UniProtKB/TrEMBL annotation:
Source species of the chain: Roseateles flavus
Domain N-acetyltransferase: start-end pairs: 26-169
Top-rank lineage group of the source organism: Bacteria
InterPro entries in the record: Acyl_CoA_acyltransferase, Bact_Acetyltransf, GNAT_dom
CDD domains noted in UniProt: NAT_SF
Gene3D superfamilies in the record: 3.40.630.30
TM annotation in the entry: none
Keywords: Acyltransferase, Transferase
Protein name: GNAT family N-acetyltransferase
PANTHER family: AMINOALKYLPHOSPHONATE N-ACETYLTRANSFERASE-RELATED-RELATED
Amino acid sequence: MRVHCHRQKDGGRDAGASAVNLAEPLVLRPATEQDAEDIARILPDLGYASTAAEVRQRMTRLADQPDQMLMIAAVADAVIGLCQAQRIYLIASDGYAEVHALAVLKQWQGRGVGRALVNAAVQWAQDAGARRVRLRSGVHREDSHQFYEAIGFTRQRASYAFEVQLPDPCDESCGTAST
């Protein structure tokens, strides 16, 4: 999927606007391995620091998963944002698609880039057979919550995330464990 968006004539900066407010066309396209360095540069805006090598390794794993979408937004060949979504299948319901990552470089926020990426994810989800799209956002990201509501998402319920840390499988199988 390759989408071109063009500059909004009135130059407005409304988060709910449907057009992208850029002098150059915005291009949305699937991420490629060549985007790994740019993606690594954007991920800290989500609170996740990663090296280009780590991003490349993760992209390789994601490429093997048919229910994944990783899209980037670029202006003049410069990557300025990304969106990752996944189709989720459940026994308890018809499932959904979930946006796992949405990030736009700070200097490009408020120009419709995030909205264009979310719209692309929603279209992808619909094409994949999902009947709803959800996303999770940290309670401290109030600006993000306002953005999501402005583009049509509704708050559903508060919940906690629980996790357990597992040992790195390479520690034992790769011969790197301490003796």
